[in-house]
Each structure stands twice: as structure tokens, then as C-alpha cells.
Design goal:
elongated, 0% strand, mainly alpha, single chain
Length: 119
């Protein structure tokens, strides 16, 4: 009963039971976005990326954070919380920032073992 998009008269509007007018199907948009994110992350599963722990997970956090941030503009059930953004948008930005840190910080496992440092 929640998470519906904003009311629309566009071709992609969906009329859910209990709603008077068609709304944007944000659930479908998010599913499609996650499917595309899976494809991108799957393509990134190469030895060079996997040799740096946290890099692929960081990529997921960045991708999901940006996807959810954008989807929130299409939803109509959250009120503005701070600086014109909703609470889920702020959380999404935080996720993307943490993910970016993981992507950039990821040290190569072989470099760590060659230097004699523990992981």
C-alpha cells in the first residue's frame, strides 16, 4: 500500500487497486534499474577488480544510492526533510559516498601480502 509514484497522465501510468488515478510505477522502474545495475556489476567481475576487496560492493553502493536517489524524485509519498531532499534521498547520498570511498580505497590484496602487512 505504499511506495507509489506521483499521479500521472502519461502512457506509463498504472492504476493500482484503491487509487483513483494512475501513478508512476516506481517499483517497476527500480526493478529495471536494479537489473541494469546487476548487468554492470556482473561485467565488472574481472580479476583486476576482484583483487581489490570492497571495490565491487562499493560499486553496488554507488549504483544503488544513485538509482534510489533518482527514483525518489518520482515518488509522491515522502515529504521534504532537509535542503529540498527527502530522508531516503539523504540516505542514498550517504550510501553512494561510502561506496565511492570503498571503490577508491580498495587496496590490491597481492600488494598487501607482498609488503608483509596483515589485512
Amino acid at each position: 500500500g505504499c511506495c507509489y509514484g506521483k499521479p500521472t497522465q502519461s502512457w506509463c501510468g498504472v492504476r493500482f487497486p484503491g487509487l483513483a488515478e494512475p501513478v508512476l510505477p516506481t517499483q517497476l522502474f527500480e526493478s529495471l534499474g536494479l537489473f541494469l545495475l546487476f548487468g554492470i556489476l556482473r561485467a565488472c567481475q574481472r580479476p583486476a577488480v576482484l583483487a581489490r576487496p570492497g571495490r565491487l560492493f562499493g560499486g553496488y553502493l554507488v549504483g544503488y544510492g544513485l538509482l534510489r536517489f533518482g527514483i525518489e524524485f518520482l515518488r509522491g509519498d515522502h515529504s521534504v526533510w532537509w535542503a529540498g531532499l527527502t530522508l531516503p534521498q539523504l540516505v542514498s547520498l550517504a550510501l553512494a559516498a561510502v561506496g565511492a570511498g570503498l571503490v577508491m580505497k580498495g587496496k590490491k590484496v597481492s600488494d598487501t601480502f607482498q609488503s608483509g602487512k596483515s589485512v
